[in-house]
Amino acid sequence: MIVKTLDQWLESLNQNKIDLGLDRVKQVLSRPPFNQMTASIVTVGGTNGKGSTVTALGALLQSNRHHVGVFTSPHLFSYNERIQINGLTAQDSEIVAAFEAIEIIREDIPLSYFEFSLLAALWIFHQHSVDYMVLEVGLGGRLDAVNALDSNLSIITTVDIDHSHWLGNDIETIATEKAAIMRPGCVLIYGDINCPQAIKDRAVNEDVTLLQWRVDYNATLNFSDFDYQYGEIQFNQLPLPNMFGKFQIRNFATALTAFQQLQPNANQSVIKKALKQWRIPGRIQCIQKRPQIIADVAHNRQSVQVLTDWLADHPLKGHTRAVFSVLKDKQAETWLPVINKHIDHWFIFAMAGERATDIQTLKKQIADAGGMLSVCQNAQTAYQQAVNASKEDDRIIVFGSFHVLDEVFQSHQNMTAAQ
Questions:
Q1: Ramachandran category for residue 86: left, alpha or beta (phi over 0 → left; psi -120 to 50 → alpha)
Q2: 285-418 has which CATH code?
């Protein structure tokens, strides 16, 4: 066998092809060592908040002295972020070993990039003998590779319009796709208000216990802490997460409700420890204070509304500039007018790849939203121009895609190192 590095393995996989379906993965999962896995499985789907909820639940389980494997996607900086064991990212050597093993196990079964990634995570988790696997759904639910596994507990964080080409153009159709991750007789937690009827109906038909945000569990934000309540269970004066955004309280409460199903006797000290450990980059993340630079992976209507609400709640004296690009299937024209009210100037560029919005379309969308803009050659140039135009009392918002944040973070590090 030719020995490959991790980069060589990743280059050999088709990262841009989305090929939904369960048959291929199920065939591989029926073979050793996958058919010998004994860990409990939690599957987390939804439009937004999946990554935060997955990592919060991982932190809770780890704080209660369990061995936990966490699988998320996409990654922000390095591929290794997708696979974590007890809060630590997998090493290159572990992932390469997993890829080599899967290459042998699969024989002639073709696998997509995401399927390879999921199987690599499962192989590594099995090697570490984890107690729990917390798995983030990649796209939708019904035909996502993660759904080839039968979970003990499912979470749907939110449902909104995104990936319309694959999932549908309305909430109920999308909810039908996502609802397929629930399993008969198990618990499903829905982490938002106004649970879609498609989820409620499937829960009834499959004898699933449905727990809903603001109906069955709740969290109340105080001045410097928050309270959590689920049935007769109550935890008061919990420390705020080390992240901006009131929405993260809801994500943590959703994870905590899942944790209560798995570990009902855990005490408040475990929860406090998890809150101290819980961090996820790119969620209203402040990477510099003066001028304030905020990085957020917001890229669809719901997540951009959350970012908009945060901007409205945190006004500042100076100007706000945006470094922005977006994929063409995100219906940006529907939500750009909302956030434009809080942006004084846009620095835009076109990302690489066939899914990217071309610069002329992006320029028109911003202009139609009423925005002042500068067209830039790439992310580095856009970020540099935004920084050069900003004073200490100003703010820069970097958002629109994981790819945007990845490129801008590299630019920020290079600029900081050069100072």
A1: left
A2: 3.90.190.20
